[in-house]
Amino acid sequence: MDIQDPLGTVLRFNHFINTQDLPGLNEMMTEDHAFIDSVGEIERGRKAILQAWKTFFTLYPSYRNVFQQVSVEGDRVTMLGRSHCQEEPILDGPAIWTAQIRDNLITEWRVYDDTPENRRSLGLC
Known about the structure:
By secondary structure, the protein is of the alpha+beta class. Helices cover 32% and strands 39% of the residues. The termini are far apart.
């Protein structure tokens, strides 16, 4: 029996981001995976996103996500926390993420600026 564990899936995926583990990320993404950045730009497809992560990790080797609050609602997980990045100040600070899960894989990973409006729209107030 396949047991859905959205929280465990998200924490594992984030561990792979924090350790810059491309094979791990590959294992955790659906083929149609979408990454949406904080300005709403969308990248689709596991292969393209793996290449984007590879480039990102080369440019920002110190990048890490730390979650302070996590909520699960069905197959959607919302994380509130901060990213740490020595190379790029804009990547170092508070953030919100959402993940959509399907079959214990990440089908969408989205980053939001941590603003009162985004908190309200995501039910974090």
